[in-house]
Amino acid sequence: MKELNFKQELTAAFGQPIAENPTQVMIEAAYRHHNLDWRYLTIEVGPNDLEAAVRGAKVMGFQGFNCTIPHKVKVIEYLDGLGQSAALMGAVNCVVRRDGQWIGENTDGKGFVSSLRELTDPNRKKVVIFGAGGAARAISVEVALAGASHITIVNRSIERGEELTKLLQDKLPCYADFAPWEGTYSIPEETDVVINATSIGLFPDVDARLDFDLNTLTSEMVVADVIPNPPATNLVRDAREKGCKVIDGLGMLVNQGVIGIKHWTGIDPDPSVMRSALEEVFG
Ligand code: NDP
Q1: Could you state, in order of their start, the residue ranges of all structural domains in the chain?
Q2: Could you identify the atom of ligand 1 that is nearest to the CA of residue 229?
Q3: What CATH superfamily is the domain 109-251?
Q4: Of all protein residues, whose CA lies closest to atom 34 belonging to ligand 1?
Q5: Among the four 78, 112, 181, 280, which has the fewest Cβ within 10 Å?
Q6: Which parts of the chain sit beneath pLDDT 50?
Q7: Mutation probe of ligand 1 site: the residue of 66, 107, 156 with most atoms within 8 A of C-beta
Q8: pLDDT single digits (tens) 43-72
Q9: Secondary structure, 3-state, the chain
Q10: In CATH terms, is domain 6-107+252-277 a member of 2.60.120.590?
């Protein structure tokens, strides 16, 4: 008979199945592929319970966790330290146990830059970013840390656009400027990389289009979209038709997962397995 050793005094029992989210499907596919006897669970935590959940995860032996909106900023209060870019952004999406301490990292922007590097080195590049929310903040900080020389933030809300631009100007070694998004935007001729970091095109608004002059997009430009669902947004299709090199939203999602798994397990997972799992989810 197999000897069973019940060390744990508390086992998790979820009363109802929690919907698997795409990140869970992707990360558990990597665990299986690499024979890691790990789990990645989707657990809903309300804003009032965040502190207790972070403490609970520590005493229950979690190696780390991801957190999403609305916890990315608030969670910082309950951590023991921050990685460089998470400190600059003031937002954490990945928490890692290091020497018994909770360290907050931000893998969104790093995941994006990994995808970008597959097509072009951001060093000395001129970059136009649509959006000034959490995704734009993570991407712009990380692209600046990777050596981009000029970043233009294009955003509808002036206040948010100016705030992000000021962060880049004050804290990062790049030239940054802000273009209020009023009417149809023309992409400056010398731009190397164009990034959609808004939520335009996200399911169910799949017909939505960024308001910019398509004639100003040229085949030399690399175009990236953060929207993972659907991966083939209008921007992705338009840019492919123009002959641009294109990164879709799955690239960023996969690569932030790759970095998270490496932080938690020490294993460098195979991104292609993770992408296939996501493609199945998003059809
Ligand atoms: P936020 O709500 O923080 O920011 C949304 C941004 O989109 C703002 O700049 C907002 O402008 C702009 N925006 C939204 N609708 C419009 C519109 N109709 N016209 C012009 N601008 C608009 O969201 P996040 O930054 O957190 O996320 C943005 C997108 O990035 C989401 O779709 C999310 O799915 C995706 N994402 C993808 C990841 C990946 O791994 N692929 C990771 C993280 C996010 P304004 O300031 O004027 O309101």
Answers
A1: 6-107+252-277, 109-251
A2: 34
A3: NAD(P)-binding Rossmann-like Domain (3.40.50.720)
A4: 227
A5: 280
A6: 1, 6-9
A7: 156
A8: 889 989 999 999 999 999 999 999 988 899
A9: CCCCCCCCCCCCCCCCCCCCCHHHHHHHHHHHHCCCCCCCCCCCCCHHHHHHHHHHHHHCCCCEEECCCCCCCHHHHHCCEECHHHHHHCCCCEEEEECCEEEEECHHHHHHHHHHHHHCCCCCCEEEEECCCHHHHHHHHHHHHCCCCEEEEEECCHHHHHHHHHHHHHHCCCEEEEEECCCCECCCCCCCEEEECCCCCCCCCCCCCCCECHHHCCCCCEEEECCCCCCCCHHHHHHHHHCCEEECHHHHHHHHHHHHHHHHHCCCCCHHHHHHHHHHHHC
A10: no
State the distance from the centre of ligand 1 to the C-alpha of 112, rounded, in angstroms. 15
pLDDT at 52: 97
> Active-site positions?
72
**Residue 111 CA, closest ligand 1 atom number:** 40
Q: Give me the pLDDT at residue 282, please.
A: 83
Do 109-251 and 6-107+252-277 have the same topology in CATH? Answer: yes
